[in-house]
Amino acid sequence: MDAVTILKTAVPYRFLVGASPANAAIDRDALRGELAAMAAAVNAVAWAPPLADAFAAMRAITVFVGAVPFGQAMLQRPFTDQATADFYWQADEFAQEWTPAYRATYFLHDCWHVIQYQRDGGSAKTIDEMVQREVEAVDMQIAAARNLACDDQFIHFLTNYRNNDAAIRERLQSGYEPGAVCTACGTTKQA
Ligand SMILES: [Zn+2]
Predict the structure, then answer these.
(1) What pTM, to 2 d.p., does this model score?
(2) Which of 21, 97, 99, 109 could share a disulfide with 141, CB 3.0–4.6 Å?
(3) What is the CA(160)–ligand 1 centre distance, in A?
(4) What is the DSSP string of the chain?
Protein backbone atom coordinates (compact mmCIF):
# COMPACT_ATOMS: atom_id res chain seq x y z
CA MET A 1 0.00 0.00 0.00
CA ASP A 2 1.12 3.56 -0.65
CA ALA A 3 2.24 5.52 2.39
CA VAL A 4 3.69 8.86 3.37
CA THR A 5 6.07 9.14 6.31
CA ILE A 6 5.12 11.99 8.62
CA LEU A 7 7.48 12.50 11.58
CA LYS A 8 8.79 8.94 11.31
CA THR A 9 5.28 7.45 11.24
CA ALA A 10 4.21 5.77 8.02
CA VAL A 11 0.64 6.78 7.19
CA PRO A 12 -0.92 4.54 4.53
CA TYR A 13 -3.11 6.22 1.98
CA ARG A 14 -5.56 5.00 -0.62
CA PHE A 15 -7.70 6.42 -3.38
CA LEU A 16 -11.43 5.96 -3.47
CA VAL A 17 -13.81 6.73 -6.32
CA GLY A 18 -17.34 7.20 -5.05
CA ALA A 19 -20.47 5.72 -6.54
CA SER A 20 -21.42 9.03 -8.09
CA PRO A 21 -20.84 10.80 -10.34
CA ALA A 22 -20.20 7.82 -12.59
CA ASN A 23 -17.50 9.68 -14.52
CA ALA A 24 -15.53 10.72 -11.44
CA ALA A 25 -11.79 10.53 -12.00
CA ILE A 26 -8.86 10.89 -9.69
CA ASP A 27 -5.34 11.93 -10.67
CA ARG A 28 -3.37 9.50 -8.53
CA ASP A 29 0.10 10.56 -9.67
CA ALA A 30 -0.53 14.25 -9.02
CA LEU A 31 -2.04 13.53 -5.62
CA ARG A 32 0.85 11.22 -4.67
CA GLY A 33 3.21 14.09 -5.38
CA GLU A 34 1.15 16.53 -3.29
CA LEU A 35 0.98 14.09 -0.38
CA ALA A 36 4.74 13.62 -0.48
CA ALA A 37 5.23 17.41 -0.57
CA MET A 38 2.93 17.84 2.42
CA ALA A 39 4.85 15.23 4.40
CA ALA A 40 8.14 16.86 3.42
CA ALA A 41 6.87 20.23 4.71
CA VAL A 42 6.02 18.69 8.08
CA ASN A 43 9.31 16.80 8.27
CA ALA A 44 11.39 19.88 7.42
CA VAL A 45 10.78 21.61 10.76
CA ALA A 46 11.08 20.61 14.43
CA TRP A 47 7.90 19.97 16.42
CA ALA A 48 7.26 20.14 20.15
CA PRO A 49 4.41 18.49 22.08
CA PRO A 50 1.48 18.47 21.80
CA LEU A 51 1.65 18.97 18.03
CA ALA A 52 4.44 16.43 17.59
CA ASP A 53 2.25 13.75 19.13
CA ALA A 54 -0.90 14.86 17.33
CA PHE A 55 0.50 14.05 13.89
CA ALA A 56 0.87 10.43 14.98
CA ALA A 57 -2.84 10.18 15.81
CA MET A 58 -3.94 9.78 12.19
CA ARG A 59 -3.75 6.16 11.04
CA ALA A 60 -4.74 6.51 7.38
CA ILE A 61 -5.63 8.94 4.61
CA THR A 62 -8.33 8.30 2.03
CA VAL A 63 -8.30 10.66 -0.94
CA PHE A 64 -11.68 10.45 -2.63
CA VAL A 65 -13.84 11.85 -5.41
CA GLY A 66 -17.58 11.69 -5.75
CA ALA A 67 -19.85 10.64 -2.91
CA VAL A 68 -18.66 7.98 -0.47
CA PRO A 69 -20.73 6.20 2.16
CA PHE A 70 -20.02 6.83 5.81
CA GLY A 71 -22.45 5.65 8.45
CA GLN A 72 -25.90 6.75 7.37
CA ALA A 73 -24.60 9.47 5.07
CA MET A 74 -23.14 9.84 1.62
CA LEU A 75 -20.41 12.43 1.93
CA GLN A 76 -18.93 14.66 -0.72
CA ARG A 77 -16.85 16.84 1.58
CA PRO A 78 -13.74 16.23 3.66
CA PHE A 79 -14.29 14.50 6.99
CA THR A 80 -12.48 12.24 9.41
CA ASP A 81 -13.58 8.82 10.61
CA GLN A 82 -12.47 9.56 14.14
CA ALA A 83 -12.97 6.02 15.43
CA THR A 84 -10.51 4.58 12.90
CA ALA A 85 -8.48 7.80 12.55
CA ASP A 86 -8.92 7.81 8.76
CA PHE A 87 -8.82 11.27 7.14
CA TYR A 88 -11.13 11.39 4.13
CA TRP A 89 -9.66 14.15 1.99
CA GLN A 90 -11.76 15.23 -0.94
CA ALA A 91 -9.50 15.27 -3.99
CA ASP A 92 -10.84 18.55 -5.39
CA GLU A 93 -10.10 20.34 -2.14
CA PHE A 94 -6.73 18.71 -1.72
CA ALA A 95 -5.71 19.61 -5.26
CA GLN A 96 -6.64 23.28 -5.05
CA GLU A 97 -3.88 25.84 -5.01
CA TRP A 98 -2.73 25.43 -1.45
CA THR A 99 0.88 25.23 -0.40
CA PRO A 100 2.13 21.94 1.09
CA ALA A 101 2.30 23.79 4.44
CA TYR A 102 -1.36 24.87 4.23
CA ARG A 103 -2.34 21.24 3.62
CA ALA A 104 -0.21 20.16 6.56
CA THR A 105 -2.15 22.50 8.86
CA TYR A 106 -5.50 21.07 7.73
CA PHE A 107 -4.13 17.57 8.26
CA LEU A 108 -3.03 18.58 11.76
CA HIS A 109 -6.47 20.12 12.42
CA ASP A 110 -8.15 16.78 11.79
CA CYS A 111 -5.45 14.92 13.73
CA TRP A 112 -6.51 17.05 16.67
CA HIS A 113 -10.13 15.96 16.27
CA VAL A 114 -8.88 12.37 16.64
CA ILE A 115 -7.03 13.40 19.81
CA GLN A 116 -10.28 14.93 21.11
CA TYR A 117 -12.24 11.78 20.23
CA GLN A 118 -9.79 9.64 22.18
CA ARG A 119 -9.37 12.08 25.08
CA ASP A 120 -13.01 13.13 25.57
CA GLY A 121 -14.81 9.81 25.17
CA GLY A 122 -15.92 9.72 21.56
CA SER A 123 -17.76 12.15 19.33
CA ALA A 124 -19.06 15.51 20.52
CA LYS A 125 -22.55 15.13 21.97
CA THR A 126 -23.87 18.68 21.54
CA ILE A 127 -23.38 21.56 19.15
CA ASP A 128 -21.74 23.57 21.94
CA GLU A 129 -19.22 20.77 22.46
CA MET A 130 -18.62 20.63 18.71
CA VAL A 131 -17.92 24.37 18.71
CA GLN A 132 -15.50 24.03 21.63
CA ARG A 133 -13.66 21.25 19.82
CA GLU A 134 -13.53 23.22 16.57
CA VAL A 135 -12.06 26.28 18.32
CA GLU A 136 -9.43 24.11 19.98
CA ALA A 137 -8.60 22.37 16.69
CA VAL A 138 -8.20 25.73 14.93
CA ASP A 139 -5.94 26.95 17.76
CA MET A 140 -3.74 23.91 17.14
CA GLN A 141 -3.91 24.54 13.39
CA ILE A 142 -2.74 28.14 13.92
CA ALA A 143 0.13 26.92 16.09
CA ALA A 144 1.07 24.50 13.32
CA ALA A 145 0.82 27.28 10.72
CA ARG A 146 3.22 29.41 12.76
CA ASN A 147 5.65 26.50 13.13
CA LEU A 148 5.50 25.96 9.37
CA ALA A 149 6.14 29.68 8.76
CA CYS A 150 2.89 30.14 6.86
CA ASP A 151 2.22 33.69 5.69
CA ASP A 152 0.38 36.22 7.85
CA GLN A 153 -2.61 36.28 5.50
CA PHE A 154 -3.30 32.59 6.05
CA ILE A 155 -2.88 32.89 9.82
CA HIS A 156 -5.21 35.92 9.78
CA PHE A 157 -7.80 33.89 7.86
CA LEU A 158 -7.65 31.08 10.41
CA THR A 159 -7.78 33.52 13.34
CA ASN A 160 -10.87 35.27 11.96
CA TYR A 161 -12.65 31.91 11.66
CA ARG A 162 -11.53 30.85 15.14
CA ASN A 163 -12.99 34.05 16.64
CA ASN A 164 -16.27 33.98 14.68
CA ASP A 165 -18.67 31.88 16.73
CA ALA A 166 -21.52 32.34 14.24
CA ALA A 167 -19.38 31.22 11.30
CA ILE A 168 -18.22 28.12 13.19
CA ARG A 169 -21.80 27.20 14.13
CA GLU A 170 -22.99 27.74 10.58
CA ARG A 171 -20.27 25.51 9.17
CA LEU A 172 -20.78 22.78 11.77
CA GLN A 173 -24.53 22.70 11.17
CA SER A 174 -24.51 22.83 7.39
CA GLY A 175 -24.13 20.03 4.92
CA TYR A 176 -25.55 17.13 6.87
CA GLU A 177 -28.90 15.78 7.93
CA PRO A 178 -30.03 14.45 11.35
CA GLY A 179 -28.45 11.08 11.94
CA ALA A 180 -25.75 11.86 9.42
CA VAL A 181 -22.21 12.97 9.98
CA CYS A 182 -20.81 16.45 10.39
CA THR A 183 -18.77 17.06 7.29
CA ALA A 184 -16.59 19.61 9.04
CA CYS A 185 -15.50 17.48 11.93
CA GLY A 186 -16.75 13.96 11.32
CA THR A 187 -18.77 14.02 14.49
CA THR A 188 -22.16 12.35 14.51
CA LYS A 189 -25.04 14.73 14.95
CA GLN A 190 -27.52 13.84 17.68
CA ALA A 191 -31.02 14.00 16.19
ZN1 LIG B 1 -12.72 20.77 12.54
Answers:
(1) 0.88
(2) 109
(3) 15
(4) --EEEETTEEEEEEEEE-SBSTT----HHHHHHHHHHHHHHHHTS---TTHHHHHTT--EEEEEESBEEETTEEE-S-EEETTTTEEEEEHHHHHSS--HHHHHHHHHHHHHHHHHHHHTTSS--SHHHHHHHHHHHHHHHHHHHHHTT--HHHHHHHHHHHT-HHHHHHHHHSS--TTSB-TTT-PBPP-
